Amino acid sequence: MLSYLHQFHAGNFADVHKHGALTLALTMMQAKASPIAGFDTHAGSALYDLTGERAGKTGEAKAGIQRVWALRDQLEDSDWSPMLDELARLNPGGGPLVRYPGSPAWFSSVQRDQDTLTAFELHSTESSRLQHWARQHRVVVRNGDGLQGLLGVLPPKAPRLLVLIDPSYEIKTEYAQVCRILKQAWARCRHGVFLIWYPVLASGQHEVLPAQLESSGITKIWHSELHLQQPPERGMTGSGMLVVNPPWGFGDRLDAMLRPVLGSEGLNARHQQSWLVPE
Ligand code: SAM
User: Fold this and answer.
1) Ligand 1 centre from 146 Cα, in Å?
2) Torsion of the alpha carbons at 96, 102, 107 and 113, rounded to the nearest 10
3) What domain count does the chain have?
């Protein structure tokens, strides 16, 4: 029984990290004209109301995307531009954000005619909401397990591949499962770009994922972590991204993108990154 609902967390600092990395990787890949097949293994419901009851209960977006949005004048002509343009389109009022896109909507906002997206979602209510949103977008929705689903569609017909793996990690074994599936997916498409998000937890439970990937045989894995300067004693103290086959120069661009939003007016966090496994 799945209980995680992204509506409680939409637009938090981890979403900023994840969606920033996703749009950056995709737009960098689009420097070449060849088609990209996109897969979002844990898609959520695509569009979130930051003023809704669930988002209001946690208020997480206030310390996340709302802070980046407030700094937008300082972020003009930067790698934030595709995200800020989309947020402005969805929130024409200009005040605090009301509508915030989830990962399939970020994919779709920068998708070109030659690119495709398939989004998996297991939770039936979330999947129905996703289907409803997808009627107006060029996105194929599959109601089912995204990890097994991914293995079923690889290698894609398109010459290039971008995959986002963003589980809720409700079950402890998901960290090891992600590593297992990634090894199989990579074996089927070695040139694919895979982005994997995970929470940095006070308990250290997440550490199994980078540790197992390090000895998995997969090469070219970039590792980026955001750490909150004033972390809670329990729960999520940071956000992690692992990027297999990052576009050339990705790390420098990600760091330059995050730097202006890390201060106490922004996410109040520290960014650290390096190769987990080099070329
Ligand atoms: N990727 C979304 C975003 O960035 O906007 C957020 C996704 S949320 C962290 C994880 C989602 O995965 C939840 O909506 C949950 O219902 C769904 N989920 C959990 N297990 C799944 C599985 N095995 N396959 C597909 N979806 C799953």
Assistant:
1) 8
2) -80
3) 1
Q: Which of 149, 138, 85 is nearest to 115 (CA)?
A: 138
User: In what helix (H) or strand (E) does residue 196 lie, and over which residues does it extend?
Assistant: strand 193-201
Residue 31 CB neighbour total at 10 angstroms:
8
Confirm whether 133 is domain-assigned.
yes
CATH of the domain at 86: 3.40.50.150
Domain assignment present for 1: no
29-46 residue pLDDT tens: 999 999 999 999 999 999
- Interval between CA 193 and ligand 1 midpoint (Å): 19
Q: Please identify every stretch of the chain with a pLDDT value under 50, giving residue numbers as ranges.
A: none
**Cβ atoms 244, 181 nearer than 8 A:** no
Distance, CA of 45 to CA of 134 (rounded, Å): 10
Provide the pairing of β-strand 99-101 with 116-121. unpaired
Q: Is 121 in the pocket of ligand 1 (CB under 6 A)?
A: yes
pTM given for the model: 0.98
State both tokens at 68: 């980046």
| 171 Cβ closer than 6 Å to some ligand 1 atom | no
CA of 4 to the centre of ligand 1 (A): 8
* Tokens of residue 140, six digits: 């194929």
* 122 in Cβ contact with 150 (< 8 Å): no
- Domain region containing 32: 6-277
Q: How far apart are CA 232 and CA 242, in angstroms?
A: 23
2 ligand 1 Cβ < 6 A: yes
Cα 146 to Cα 21, 64, 149, 181, distances in angstroms: 20, 27, 5, 10
Domain annotation covers residue 195: yes
pLDDT score of 57: 86
